[in-house]
Amino acid sequence: MGDVFVLGVGIHPFGRTEGMSGVDQGVFAVRQALGDAGLEWKDVQFAYGASDAAGNPDTMVDQLGLTGVQFINVRNGCAAGGSALFSAQMAIKSGECDIGLAVGFDKHPRGAFDAKPSEYNLPEWYGDAGYMVTTQFFANKIMRYMHLNGISRETLGRVAEKAFRNGEKAPHAWRRQPVPLEDILEAPMVSDPYSKYMFCSPAEGGVALILGSEKKARELGVPLVRLKAATMRTRPPGSFEVFAPSVDIERGGSATNIASRDAFNIAGIGPEDIDVAQLQDTEAGAELMHMAENGFCADGEQERWLAEGLTEIGGKLPVNTDGGCLACGEPIGASGLRQVYENVVQLRGQGGARQVPGDPKTAYSHVYGAPGVSAVTILER
């Protein structure tokens, strides 16, 4: 088994781009990533592409070139991009190929995501009763978590405040205007305890990562960013997940617990060794819960971490340095790959105003999707 390296990265800015399809944005990202790696499309031996609402990724070859490349489409909820990366790195690690592509894009219509019960093996009454509305589910989940672990609504606001402050410094972010904590807390309520600033928005964007073997990375002379671990896991019994028709009294962990544990075991390091992290934050409470589920703190410690600024860019563990989903929005196919893109930028020291100080050497990304799937990657320079 050989090591896998990120040879090049590309991104189309997130948000809304009129007159440009999701596929177009993915092609933009691929061309940028190829240029970053010093490669051409004909050099790519295989590709995995993720999209939820913007068409089949393999149709990108119409614009990139009809080279006959193996191109596999991935659809796995919000973890689609992370799943594409997990799949792509296996082909390199096995020695089957030297250069591959993981790409994700999406172009969602305005308004909330419109999930269908049948897509998740649920009866129609589940949707008729309103349980497919994710804002309600996540609000109920965080309300329970806050009650059990002594977390205040102000801490939710601090997560969003940090996100918009970081997003201002990221050229690819959608929401690039800081929002004061008071405005976040007093904004119109969507689903208690979440105000409108505490949820991300469906968005548009594209991200591409060129992966390769160590031999190819050294031949190209690119910065050596090693993919130390990549995992993708589904939920265990008793997990409390989106579109779960019931909740067990005794929880058996979560998909994130498993993906994180296995990633750290593969990488041979622990949470204390991570210098920068990107965690799924489709809503402010998700970042808090995922801090604990990924092993970075104990349940309830988030209250102190946010109050003391430990997750700020200059803090103990910078989290979501580009503003995460809250500032960037969430094009489902691209979102998980955006996290890895941001970590590569940080490890290369190219973050500009959002650059994590102290010459970071390790970076962690985690993406979570319905109905309970998580993907984790660990990078090392």
From TrEMBL:
<dbReference type="InterPro" id="IPR016039">
    <property type="entry name" value="Thiolase-like"/>
</dbReference>
<dbReference type="InterPro" id="IPR002155">
    <property type="entry name" value="Thiolase"/>
</dbReference>
<dbReference type="GO" id="GO:0003988">
    <property type="term" value="F:acetyl-CoA C-acyltransferase activity"/>
</dbReference>
<protein>
    <submittedName>
        <fullName>Acetyl-CoA acetyltransferase</fullName>
    </submittedName>
</protein>
<feature type="domain" description="Thiolase C-terminal">
    <location>
        <begin position="254"/>
        <end position="378"/>
    </location>
</feature>
<dbReference type="InterPro" id="IPR055140">
    <property type="entry name" value="Thiolase_C_2"/>
</dbReference>
<dbReference type="Pfam" id="PF22691">
    <property type="entry name" value="Thiolase_C_1"/>
</dbReference>
